[in-house]
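Chapter review: from sequence to fold.
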Amino acid sequence: MHLDVGRERIQYIDVARFYAMAGVFFGHFIERIMLLNDPTAATLYKFVYSFHMVLFFVLSGFIARDGDLAFSVGKFLKHRVLSRLLPFIFFTIVFMLLAAVFPGDFFNLTLPTVKGYIGGLISTGLGIPLFCVPSWFLLMLFSVEVVHYFAFRFLKSDSKILIGMVVFYIGGYFLNLNGDFMNFAKQRLYNVLFIHEAITMYAFYLLGVYLRRRKFLMEEMSLKMTIPAVIIAFLMVLFTFKLNMGPFNFNYFNSVVIMFSSHGNIFWFPLTAIAGSLLVFLLGKITPCQKTIVWMGQNTLILMCLNGVFYHFINPRLGKWVFINFAAQPLMIFGAGLMMTLMSLALCIPFIHLFNRYVPQLVGKPKINGPWLKNFI
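The token string follows.
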């Protein structure tokens, strides 16, 4: 995901992207405690998941480059394959190698065994990347951007964008609710690059496009305006996220889970998701643009996949330890989640540098040269 508005990056968006990634790290750690039936973790999980993945699609729409739509079909697909699907393949291989050395939680896969690797590859081919679960986002983002390439030529005006948001949301919502494309209870898995859910998420991508067109928060604003807006957005999420009681396609968690097209209530889901997205935009606006935070926000693709290290190898053990020692202590559960999030993000910094230094072409930056590989575009 790159930002190019007049050839200048908008730093508050990079800060918002950092917050979005922090939500992923926090949510995935809290998930492990939730799975041990901790009620505090369950509430925190439902809160974060009510908006945090939708937020990524709003941000992606905000930073979408209009110039890419002028590419030929072949050129556009080449760009997206190299910047989305190639990193997915690269990190899949990295995690397959890590699983051969370090013990981790890969759900029903027994690794390292031939049977486990074959099962994992089959699952990955069906769109469930069990070697690096967080990398699913790259597949869906690819599909959303393909939908945008073909659909946006008919949505040039602001009014048509707003109509498109409604049409794609309602159409995608009922398609996934009735199509039931990914249902483990029924052993049903009809998934090709998450195109079924990309239709729903494209509505939120269009919201990002619309906000960019309206230059949302791009002018200087006083804290007297932004802080009350932050409070209002937070309260909207706080008082609505529990109202979404379903129906959920992925009813194991009773929460919004975008990976499984599990949205819940047709009204409360988008209301909370949009409020949460605007909350993070506003937080990005009022947060000082500290260099490291901005830089990490510029490397969200790498961070998304690096989160798999914690998701598979560290969170299961540490989450269990936190549960054993701090169950029924809400502040400690919340504090442990924050601390783990900050530590995990900090540990990713040297690896982001290494990937950007030596193999940027494999981690979403195919236009960069060397030192090990030449640029692909």
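Two observations follow directly from the output. The longest strand covers residues 182-183. Residues 1-7 have pLDDT under 50 and may be disordered.
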